[in-house]
Design brief:
By secondary structure, the protein is an alpha+beta fold. It has eleven helices and twelve strands. The protein has a six-stranded antiparallel sheet. Bound molecules: zinc ion.
């Protein structure tokens, strides 16, 4: 497929998704205590409102921008599908919480944007809950799109997926079903205030790294290449690795979490935790983010200082990963991206 065609398809898909998500049903608060809800449903940030994304921005001629892996444009000079500068306001929002819950639920980590403490279970839980809610909401939107009866949507999906449409739709349905299980468990923890029930793997760097992300994922492989979960069969449930990376003014916090009974997820996180060298840990964590998460933001201060060949390879990597038809990629020691190196730190 030509790059320009790819961009047009993505634009069309985004347009149709937003068309569908404007329907009232999707603007549903994620909080389990619906009696408390106070409308309207807000356009909520999956990452911090004031903090993290602002800290990644670069400003040229008064315009501030960041990059997101899913927003792309053609680089005419070098002829590849590059990252596209976007404004922070457009980044990472979702209609996932009502006005009351968006404010009330996250006040411990939002009122003071620098407050997050990785030794505080409530803080770790809230970040994890929000990251999960974003992924859940996106999957729900996707499900709405694929099960829509709008003629315009149907026409497009048929054109885009052809004979694979049924299989792809089934995959989206199963993925949403799989997310209902962790959703129920996380909601129970939230109601019971049992924030310590998740197993957290937290890390902190004493400098600002150029990346931010939030979401839940089931990786394809373990670090050594063994398959983790490559199945699309209905009877195999997914494991869940909750991932949140947040840059602060002078530090970066990484919160990974899993259910203690989810043995595969715990094994994956143990493996990461037991990497013997700092360099490899940083690279593997970078790989985990690129390979498994969509809701990833990076700083232009990091990306723009790389040469075009590096940027081209970076973008090709994202293309391969985001394409449903290409196989999973595996980690190797030569992996060329390290968001967490001290030399990549960004400053105001
Ligand atoms: Zn609510």
């Amino acid at each position: 497929m030509e790059q320009s065609e790819f961009i047009e398809q993505q634009k069309e898909l985004n347009r149709l998704t937003s068309l569908i998500s404007q329907g009232a049903t999707i603007k549903d608060c994620s909080h389990p205590l619906k009696d408390e809800c106070r409308l309207p449903i807000k356009s909520a940030h999956s990452l911090q409102r004031q903090g993290s994304l602002k800290l990644l921005e670069k400003t040229i001629n008064g315009n501030s921008f960041i990059y997101c892996h899913t927003e792309r444009q053609i680089n005419k000079k070098y002829g590849f599908l590059d990252l596209k500068p976007i404004g922070r306001r457009d980044a990472s929002t979702f209609y996932g919480f009502c006005d009351f819950h968006d404010t009330e639920l996250f006040k411990e980590i939002e009122n003071d944007p620098e407050a997050t403490d990785i030794n505080n279970n409530l803080h770790c839980f809230l970040h994890t809950y929000r990251s999960f809610s974003h992924s859940y909401h996106r999957k729900y939107e996707e499900y709405k799109l694929f099960t829509s009866s709008e003629p315009e949507v149907l026409k497009y999906l048929n054109k885009f997926y052809g004979g694979d449409l049924e299989k792809v739709t089934q995959g989206v349905k199963l993925a949403l079903q799989d997310l209902e299980i962790p959703k129920k468990s996380l909601d129970e923890m939230l109601i019971n205030k049992s924030y310590e029930e998740l197993e957290y793997y937290c890390y902190e760097y004493p400098y600002r790294c150029p990346v931010s992300c939030a979401g839940v994922t089931t990786p394809g492989h373990f670090k050594n290449g063994d398959p983790f979960n490559l199945s699309e069969k209905a009877d195999i449930s997914y494991s869940d690795i909750f991932t949140t990376v947040l840059p602060f003014a002078e530090r970066t916090v990484i919160i990974l979490a899993a259910f203690p009974e989810d043995l595969l997820a715990i094994k994956y996180l143990d493996e990461l935790d037991n990497i013997s060298t700092e360099l490899e840990f940083q690279k593997y964590l970078s790989f985990h983010i690129i390979n498994n998460l969509e809701n990833v933001y990076i700083s232009p201060k990091f990306y723009d200082r790389k040469d075009y060949k590096w940027r081209q390879s970076y973008c090709q990597l994202i293309n391969i990963i985001s394409n449903k038809y290409t196989p999973y990629i595996r980690y190797n020691k030569g992996f060329p991206v390290n968001y967490f190196a001290y030399t990549e730190k960004i400053e105001s």
